[in-house]
Amino acid sequence: MTDEMEGLEEITEIETHEEWALRRKREAMKVSRPQAVHALRQAGLIPAIEAYMGAASDLERDAWENAVIFSRLSPPVQSMAAALGISDAQLDALFEAAAQVAI
């Protein structure tokens, strides 16, 4: 096999335009702590988050307690959403709602 053919063995996933646009939209989703807390309170999720934080690692708890800005694609946000059973669409909606909160 030639060197040119070796690279063909590894198949990489190619994003569709829609997937790319969604990823770019999510990368831009960033809200302040007050915006996030307000949206979470409105969604009735504060008790679930407090329970989650009670069992969370020190690192997760520190990330939650000390965050000034929450990014939609950050690992702590992704982990918490997964643990709470929040879907990608629901998480998008939470960030969109939070972004509407005027501070």
Secondary structure layout:
Elements lengths: L2 H4 L10 H12 L1 E3 H10 L3 H10 L2 H9 L2 E3 L3 H10 L3 H12 L4
Helix pairs in contact: 3-7
Can you give keywords for this protein?
65% helix, globular, two-stranded antiparallel ribbon, mainly alpha, 2 strands
Please explain how this structure is put together:
With 103 residues, the chain is mainly alpha-helical. The chain has one domain (30-103). The protein is built from seven helices and two strands, in the order H-H-E-H-H-H-E-H-H. The chain has helices at residues 3-6, 17-28, 33-42, 46-55, 58-66, 75-84, 88-99, and strands at 30-32, 69-71. Strands 1-2 form a two-stranded antiparallel ribbon.
Give a brief outline of the structure:
The chain is mainly α and 103 residues long. The chain has helices spanning 3-6, 17-28, 33-42, 46-55, 58-66, 75-84, 88-99; strands at residues 30-32, 69-71. It has one domain (30-103).
Biggest sheet, in brief? 2 strands, antiparallel
Beta-strand residue percentage: 5-15%
Estimated radius of gyration: 18 Å
What is the spatial order of strands in the main beta sheet? 1-2
